Amino acid sequence: MKEARFQVYRGDAKAGKLQEYTVAVEEGMVVLDAIHRIQAKDAPDLAVRWNCKAAKCGSCSAEVNGKPKLMCKTRLDDLPLEEPVVVKPMKTFPVVKDLVCDVSWNFEVNKRIPKFTPRKDREWRWMQEDIDRVQEYRKCIECFLCQNVCHVLREHGEKPGFAGPRFLVRVAGLETHPMDAGNRTKLLKDEMGIGYCNITKCCTEVCPEDIHITDNAIIPLKERVVDEHYDPVMKVIRLFTGGSNKKEG
Amino acid sequence: MSARETHDYDVLVIGAGGAGLRAAIEASAAGAKVGVICKSLLGKAHTVMAEGGVAAALAHVDPKDSWKVHFRDTMLGGKLLNHWRMAQLHAQEAPERVRELERWGAVFDRTKDGRILQRNFGGHSAPRLAHVGDRTGLEMIRTLQDEGVHQGFDVFMECTVTKLLKDGDRVTGCFAYRRENGRFLLFRAKAIVLATGGIGKAYKVTSNSWEYTGDGHALAYEAGAELIDMEFVQFHPTGMVWPPGVMGILVTEAVRGEGGILRNSKGERFMEKYDPKRMELSTRDMVARAIYTEVKEGRGSPHGGAFLDISHKPADYVKKKLPSMYHQFKDLADVDITTTPMEVGPTTHYIMGGVRVEPDTGASTVPGLFAAGECAGGMHGANRLGGNSLSDLLVFGRRAGLGAAEYAKKTGPNPPLDDRQVQAAEREMLEPFERSGSSPYDVHQRLQECMHSLVGIFRVEEDMTAAIAEIGRLKEDAARVRVTGSREFNPGWHLAHDLRSMLVCSEAVARSALTRKESRGGHARLDHPNLDPEQGRRNTVVRRDGESMHVSQSPLPEMPAELRAIVDAELEAVKV
Ligand SMILES: Cc1cc2nc3c(=O)[nH]c(=O)nc-3n(C[C@H](O)[C@H](O)[C@H](O)COP(=O)(O)OP(=O)(O)OC[C@H]3O[C@@H](n4cnc5c(N)ncnc54)[C@H](O)[C@@H]3O)c2cc1C
Ligand code: SF4
Ligand code: SF4
Ligand code: FES
Fold first, then answer.
1. For residue A247, with 0-12 CB atoms within 10 Å meaning exposed, 13-18 middle and 19 or more buried, which class applies?
2. Where does the pLDDT of residue A249 fall: very low under 50, low under 70, confident under 90, or very high at 90 and above?
3. Residues of A numbered 125-144 whose beta carbons fall under 8 angstroms of chain B's beta carbons: which are they?
4. Can B564 be counted among the known catalytic residues?
């Protein structure tokens, strides 16, 4: 039977190293299967998160051969098995142990986003076309891979000032909801630091849900912030039409 | 007592899936101080994986649908073993619970006139499942999470409860550990709601995650509560069968709801033989047994399943209505479902049995202990209809949250926790580090083999007796398993404890299955292949008696005449 070598990060925030394991390869196997085999055979205390094993829960994020991936969706067929497969935890967040890192910061950011506020003046009816975009944002499985690759969070340690792409996607989902009456442009500008994003699109590239994070979420939100906060003409128009124009994006 | 981290709540909810979150939202709204504990991160519970939809008689697609029709379908699907009152409340309240999700921001697919769209599912006689493509559970859990975050309840993520603590008869708190660092913590609460989900990890082939080890069932059992109808395990007819690593992963029933056709290796549409009227949209127990039989009789697909084909529908339609199935097969099996049939076979999916509760409040038979969602029993009888779980979580999650909050209001301050119980719970957790027995992974694997081959889709007395004997041996081995490494995020250690829960549940399933000498819904016996009207009027009840498991039968609650009439009208057609 074919075998593959794996180098898996073992350790915690203070110290750790890559440990090598050999795994028998079966047809159609994914990286998470290999990690589970290592657990069952060689390293019962190897820490890893997973739930669905089908790319639906966003638990098993890691860096496989340096690329941010869901381990349950990364097939061994697609990796060069002549070389050892290197599996490390996401780099942007502090390591708890082995492949598990502390992503609690993300849950704190989420709490600061005011919830959906339904309009009172409209019937709960809308067309499918009106929500295709909202549903795109709502596909997010909170794998935090976009947070992991975004250089603002990864290299510059801007965590307090920048909410990161995941939460810009979340706000886009609220702002474009046909029944939402809230306005989060001030939040976007002042607290979520949307200005820090310089549209490198790295987040979009890694999103396992194929959400067009930059084009469909961040850029329209940036435009909205500019419109509302820097454009006096728009402000006047808004005064007369009574509310923000919710159709864009 | 030592200075252990301790938290005090009016209502403590164990589990943060749909049922737990809905309970927490309601209990908070009723003014209780609420804490929520979950084994994974927030938003990763099973509910997130639900695909096909949530059942509610909104009557948006078929105006003739109503709660009465939904009630009847549910009772017939459950082969009349359901608690009538739960089925009634569920059918009556599900529409409002779904509309409420919409008011909290959920974005369901739409009908042409702009209302919530509904799709067909097995056993439902009208298109009834509100859905979002095939990621309905994600929409639901995220909506509850985002609503819940602003309710002000505390969430303890990656914490596992291992014991309920009692004062006399009454539950007063629990013992837990944090996965991250292995530290222990204590909770004191006036009322506890169990919302821990199912037991699927006791089986080899399953759609369930590592969390589904039946902890809530076992916690309740050990605290003295009654479990009912544990023999009823649902094998979902369509799990992936290939490649090996994904064996058991769910293929949503929505594929059949959207028109998917099942064929055997000879190209025959075999459901014609088993249920010519409803075909692929027959109930899950029927379809699972049909596929199993086709494979057993030599008409299976190359990897031991049946073919499920949706490729006669336009590719764009398939991608729009079943996007995650499209990707799942493309990414994991190299199969393009818009052109090629899928290979599917039965997978352990859901447990109908669970903690016996009062329908209106979710109260168990132990004072202060409530249960809702998959870990509660009674709602689904002998077989659950697809889509009826997500609605169950909303309806009974809310009711249990309310029931617990009201109970808490009437209860005096929490008595101090009993140090003896706490120390025993702690000892139980620490012992595996000092032992020299086998690895928990080995014991788990043996249990999965045992349940899979001896208490699976078709059952016979000899097999189940053998299973009970094997479970006895496994219990001894589980009590000797050895854990290596530290207490920090140590999956081997976690499994060592989860094994205990799985063994309690497995024993309850096997003993209950042995007791029910008939075939009904999810419970099929080769040695008793027919329905027995006499046993059909009884629940199976499991309860702890010292160190042994006591099994008995108790009469079903009497259904009021007006509800009986709703069911009777259709009874003949489905041969219950
Ligand atoms: C792949 C899949 C698809 C499905 N599709 C559908 C569908 O389309 N429609 C439908 O109606 N149903 C569907 N179901 C069934 C449905 O999703 C589940 O029955 C339902 O989500 C269970 O919800 P719950 O709230 O009871 O438990 P869960 O959502 O599983 O939550 C259980 C919670 O309890 C916590 N927990 C467990 N033990 C402990 C412990 N010891 N200490 C602390 N916390 C603990 C867990 O961490 C988790 O937070 C599907 C199931 C699966 C697996
Ligand atoms: S586009 Fe913006 S959010 Fe995305 S990775 Fe680049 S800087 Fe970060
Ligand atoms: S937006 Fe995409 S990459 Fe980011 S957390 Fe959500 S699913 Fe993951
Ligand atoms: S395990 Fe759920 S996304 Fe990988």
1. exposed
2. very low
3. 125-128, 131, 134-135, 138-139, 141-142
4. no
**Binary contact (B48, A141; C-beta < 8 A):** yes
Bond before A165 cis per omega within 30 degrees: no
Q: Are A151 and A164 in contact (CB under 8 A)?
A: no
Flag whether residue A105 sits within 8 Å of chain B, measured between CB atoms. no
Cα separation of B458 and B231, whole Å? 12
Count of Cβ atoms closer than 10 Å to residue B476 Cβ: 10
Contact criterion met (CB below 8 Å) for B38 and B220: no
Establish whether B446 is a catalytic residue: no
Exposed e or buried b per residue across B437-473, where buried means at least 16 C-beta atoms within 10 angstroms of its C-beta: bebbbebbebbbebbbebbbbebeeebbebbbebbee
CA distance A48 to A40: 13
Q: Where are the alpha helices (DSSP H) in A156-210?
A: 165-175, 185-186, 202-206
pLDDT digits (tens, 9 = 90+) for B372-414: 999 999 999 999 999 999 999 999 999 999 999 999 999 988 8
Interface test with B, best of A1, A50, A56 (most B CBs within 10 A): A56
Give the torsion sign (CA, B197, B198, B199, B205).
negative
CB neighbour list of residue B334: distance below 8 Å, 6 or more residues apart: A28
Question: How much is the pTM?
Answer: 0.95
**Residue in A56, A153, A55 with CA at minimum distance from that of residue A101:** A153
At residue A234 the predicted structure's pLDDT band, cuts being 50, 70 and 90, is low
What is the share, in percent, of chain A residues with pLDDT greater than 70? 92
Tell me what ipTM this predicted complex has: 0.92
Q: Where are the beta strands (DSSP E) in B70-158?
A: 118-119, 129-130, 154-156
The type of residue at A95 is: V
**Interface test with chain A among B330, B489, B494, B495, by most A beta carbons within 10 Å:** B489
Helix (H) or strand (E) holding B463: helix B461-478
d(CA B217, CA B230): 10
Expressed in angstroms and rounded, the spacing between residue B197 Cα and the centre of ligand 1 is 5
What whole-number distance in Å separates Cα of residue B513 and Cα of residue B523? 7
Q: Which helix or strand (DSSP H or E) is residue B504 part of?
A: helix B491-515
